[in-house]
Input
Amino acid sequence: MKVTSPPRVNRQRWLSRKPDPSAAARLFCFPYSGCSASMYSQWPRWIGQIEICLIQPPARQKRIREPHYETYEALAAALVEYLPPYLDRPFAFFGHCGGALPGVELTRQLAAAGLPLPRRVFVSSQVAPHDGPYGRLLDLNADQLGEELGKIMTNLGVEPTAELIEMSLELLIQDLEANKRYKVAKPFYLPTGITAIGWYDDSEIPMDRMNGWREVSEDCRYALLEGDHFRFLDAPRALLDEFERDLASSA
Output
């Protein structure tokens, strides 16, 4: 897969806040398609000694005037340039649905560059790269996506006004286009552990669609948690326990 050059952006904006040097471990979280780092507003900043570090891609919130990254390869390439100073202790990546694959591609590029690797990549409600692109939203038109945005905003506790949906629609479309462009012909190997997380009441990405992660890592664990597709937004204890299981023991 061809790796494109990283976009030229303000290096200080990739994380919503500067990592704490006292953290024993770090969990870097990617936002869901069409969303920004603020989607994790209900999450704690710390899980024990594990610091939650929120990735803020361009084209949203304070980075609204910056061009969209367009591909996961370009997004990962930019983060390979930026993140290494913060990879000096045990760390992991987390992403849900469209936010899961950037962490996978970033791990791939970190490995290729000989840089530190995450102890684990946590992928929630997402198929393995060689089984995608997959997802109901990928086939919806703009009007239908606007309706979906209203549901997403409601789940985030935001009033879905027509003006807000119109402002957010272009970003959602661009994020979904990046997902569509991430096409992998056959399984690739990641030299790190993967935890594939599914949700009992998730009709978007059923757990049986996630079997392909076993072909990506020799250390693949599955966790089926209570809740629907958006349950992760509340930072349920069962999800936080998955992070602690791997990072707290290595911190």
In short: The chain has five helices and seven strands. Confidence is low (pLDDT under 50) at residues 6-10.
